[in-house]
Amino acid sequence: MAFVLILLLAIAVVYLLNQYLFSYWSKRGIKQLEPSFFYGDGGDLIKFKKSMGEFFKDIYSKHKNERIVGVYISYKPVLVVTDPKLVQDILIRDFTTFHDRPMPVDENKDPISGHLFNIGGQKWRDLRVKLSPTFTSGKIKAMYPIIKNVGKVLEDYLDEQVNKGVNVFEFRDLMARFNINIISSVAFGIDNDCINEPKHFFRQMSAKIFDPNLMNGLRALITLLAPTLFHKLNMRILDRDVEDFIFSVVKQTVEYREQKNFSRNDFMQLLIQLKNQGYVSVDKGEKDSEEMKNHSDTKSKLTLNEIIAQAFVFFVAGFETSSSTLLYCLFELARHKEIQQKVQQEVDKVFKTSGPDGVTYDMLSELKYLECVIDETLRKYPILPVHVRTANRDYKIADSNIVIPKGASLWIPALGFHRDPDIYENPLEFKPERFLNSSNGDGKATGVFYTPFGDGPRNCIGMRLGKLTTKIGLSIIFSKFNLELNDKEMQDGELKFHPNQFVLTPSKLFNMKISRR
Ligand code: HEM
């Protein structure tokens, strides 16, 4: 009898606690979903049934007439922002309230966690001001010869393979190897050849960072559910061997350059300037930005650990996003012959004018249609499909009585906006022409709805580089080759995405076939 009573009491306590925890949003007058025991609304995410992008997109599609929806991922309350105008306020107008992301940072225990994507507050502001001059068009243009050389390696590799009779490729891996060569060269100052050496150590280490294994899944889940617990549980953002590898690569490069007085046009050199003088030298013809001039902390120097963390984030944020963009572009062009031909015609027209120096940086900017292809790819496949921010104070939503409480995590479903039929007509149709006369596409809604690189002061710092490497990869491939799908069944229908990846990754590998034009 006593046992039954205790059991009933325990059930009642669990039930009441459940009800209490799942009333966090309704008590604040915010519409919420219908959470179920333990999983809350996040069952599909926690059980790895849906990718993060699709999970938030589906909530958006069902609730887009609300401005904001309260959701529970297990017992963690988060908000999904479904109104483009409110998104704009959060990312741009009221940025000072929302400048941080809920990410785990502990620079003492885990120095690599202290990178630009993760850190917040004044520290982020100071670092962003220091790093922004490293991504100006002048600096990226100066890196162009390095990137162009990697392009040549890709071109020679494809030529050689086709000569040998190999014409079917799993492009996800090949494009990752191409981008690793570029980013490791500009971020770490190291010339690798992962294109010709698929098992190169650099490739193996970078694959480990994005490997959908249990540990990486757990890291993503704890980051989502309880970022402040992450380091208390003695977790680190990287496996030890990958971390040791990054540390030793950067340390050796810095020591080599300082001892030999060697310099090169790459991010590593600019990071070394930040370590030794606290600011990046301005090139001839380039002006200090207003932000830089008015900033009080332009002179404090970065430590070695801080530059290691930044080199690391340039590497990870750069290679996976750019190679996925390339992969989706290739996929859509392979199944749209007429668009592929237009790209080829434009590339032929521009490349025909090249002189003895080959294709120049300025010539690439003439590839306007190709740019629309990239913009449309990133509309249909925003590689980071959700943007996330935290509120650093209570925030009253304009024209409403709703208050977003201090500390709330806000999730902005970019994939949802980009594939909303009320914003983009026939959103699954691949139509680069949407972008011919507009940088936002032909979307109808007001406010922010095209955000492949995020928006506001905390948008992607590497956008120019990401677009440039994608353009180089595509123009090289289509200047010489035709591309088609190997599996004709993929001609129609849509790609499914991997459930335990934060970035939008196809759930299955697939091959494409090239032939000489
Ligand atoms: C096509 C390629 C790329 C895409 C689609 C992309 C997308 C994004 C997005 C959506 C964000 C978040 C923005 C927000 O929350 O508002 C972001 C942030 C960031 N990206 Fe990129 N990115 C790309 C390439 C790159 C490259 C090449 C680099 C560096 C070499 C880079 C470095 C970063 C960094 C450091 C941040 C954090 C910025 C901050 O918090 O201040 N990205 N990126």
Automatic annotation (TrEMBL):
Pfam families listed in its UniProt record: p450 (PF00067)
Highest taxon above the source species: Eukaryota
Residues that, per the record, bind heme: C460
Cofactor: heme
UniProt-recorded Gene Ontology molecular function terms: heme binding; iron ion binding; monooxygenase activity; oxidoreductase activity, acting on paired donors, with incorporation or reduction of molecular oxygen
Main localisation: endoplasmic reticulum
Topology term for the membrane: Peripheral membrane protein
Gene3D superfamilies in the cross-refs: Cytochrome P450
A GO cellular component annotation in the UniProt record: endoplasmic reticulum membrane
Family that this chain belongs to: Belongs to the cytochrome P450 family.
Name of the protein: CLUMA_CG016217, isoform A
Species of provenance: Clunio marinus
